[in-house]
Design goal:
The protein has 269 residues and is an alpha+beta fold. The protein has eight helices and eight strands; from the N terminus they run ααβββααββαββαβαα. Helix 1 runs parallel beside helix 2.
């Protein structure tokens, strides 16, 4: 919903597959089928998925050319794909469309050689600006965000948050929250949650709950935080190792001294 990948991915596919941008229908991830969605960040989709889609589209293009070669009785090397049509380069009248080749059927084939991807200078769609395919839905309010989804009997939950990890609940008073019409308060040990049909009311109710917590002593402060992270971090991976901290320190002192000398000379001048 955020960064327009349903448009940019279509541009990527259209370029390598050699079809018009208006011929590409993007079916995005369905959280009902794939419940874990990592969220919306700095468009990692473009970085990670563009190369895969380009490679798949280029391979599909070559598979279609292979099928066209059999239909037209011409070597693949003499064929060219353009805008959903494969034709003989020396005689454009000898052609066949993707639709005629596939006839609406799924084509499951692969090629032995790695397909050649287009060079940037050959792009028709990648790098150009187009109206986002979901623009109309968004400006008219038809696009549904998470907050727009209302299921029968659905309630919104607000949780009483402890002030720190490992805090222990000493006392709690939920009477003010429970006095609000329609509010349900559920408690299981230190876990307290407020439920209501409207998120604003649930938020109001959770703020009305008075709780007292015993916080654990902090294991780190401004001086020891980095050492604490190094000691307690898990699942770490070394991406690259090199250099020498002591050499860096000596170089820093050298350049610092050199810059100070240069500045002094300029002052005297």
């Amino acid at each position: 919903m955020g960064q327009g990948i349903n448009t940019s991915l279509a541009q990527t596919l259209a370029d390598e597959l050699e079809v018009g941008l208006d011929k590409v229908d993007m079916i995005m991830g369905d959280t009902e089928l794939c419940p874990y969605d990592a969220g919306t960040w700095g468009s990692m989709t473009t970085r990670f998925h563009d190369p895969l889609i380009r490679a798949a589209a280029a391979e599909a293009r070559e598979v279609l050319k292979k099928l066209a070669s059999e239909k037209l009785n011409v070597p693949v090397s003499q064929l060219k794909a353009e805008n959903g049509i494969i034709f003989v380069e020396s005689d454009k009248n000898r052609q066949i469309t993707y639709a005629e080749l596939t006839k609406g059927q799924k084509i499951v084939q692969s090629i032995s050689d790695k397909p050649v991807l287009k060079k940037p200078g050959d792009f028709k769609f990648i790098g150009n600006s187009y109206l986002r395919s979901d623009s109309l839905q968004k400006v008219t309010g038809k696009a549904l965000y998470t907050a727009d989804v209302h299921l029968p009997g659905m309630l919104y939950a607000k949780i009483v948050r402890p002030p720190a990890h490992g805090s222990k609940l000493i006392s709690v008073d939920t009477s003010a929250a429970e006095a609000i019409q329609g509010v349900r308060v559920i408690r299981e040990d230190d876990f307290i949650v407020v439920l209501h049909a409207h998120p604003e009311t649930a938020e109001k109710a959770v703020r009305a709950i008075k709780s007292e917590w015993e916080k654990p002593a902090s294991k780190a402060d401004n001086e020891t935080i980095f050492e604490h992270i190094v000691k307690t971090a898990t699942d770490s991976r070394v991406r690259h190792e090199g250099g020498n901290p002591e050499t860096g320190k000596r170089n820093r002192k050298f350049f610092s001294k050199m810059n100070t000398t240069t500045a002094t000379k300029r002052t005297h001048q």
